[in-house]
Amino acid sequence: MSLIFLWRRIHLGRNPLARGWDRIEAAILVGGVVAALLGVPLAAAAGSEAYATMMARSALETAMRHSTTAFLLEDAPSARVGLDGIPSAETASVAARWALPDGTFREASVTADLGASTGDAVTVWLDESDAVVDPPVMPLDATSTGIGVGVGVWLIAVTLLAAGYLLARQLLNRARSAAWDREWERFGQGSRS
Fold first, then answer.
1. Which stretches of the chain drop beneath a pLDDT of 70?
2. Residue 157: which domain range?
């Protein structure tokens, strides 16, 4: 669709062939574009809120969790190689042992890459009671979440606006077609008399 066509579609000016229906359609299109542009700051605010929430979670989890090095007590399942020759990045639950600050040892299942061998070192995250937990949310995760939420909210809004425009256009086309049929019927009645 060329810009000239789009400009003519929304700027009907004093065109004597432009019907009321055409002007309504142009107004709906312009309103949708304006609403999409006004949605950018709202989407940015939603993304910013998601980022702030994730950063607060990151700070809390980083303060309450600590990492240690554990050593695998058994081999992880073999790595699978894809058709492209690249090993998969899958993980498995494997028994491991690590030392606590008080000098005692703890054993539990930890996450290790497929293909890891007995004795390999893996990083384990522990909470305040030295139980195995997931790693804390990293700032990069918070950034990607914020961007994803912002872009996602805006794309959903634009999709809804586009669907609304297309629905309105279909309804307007039906109304135009009905008006056209009425005009032809009147024209046909006038020629018979």
1. 1-18, 87, 190-193
2. 42-63+145-169
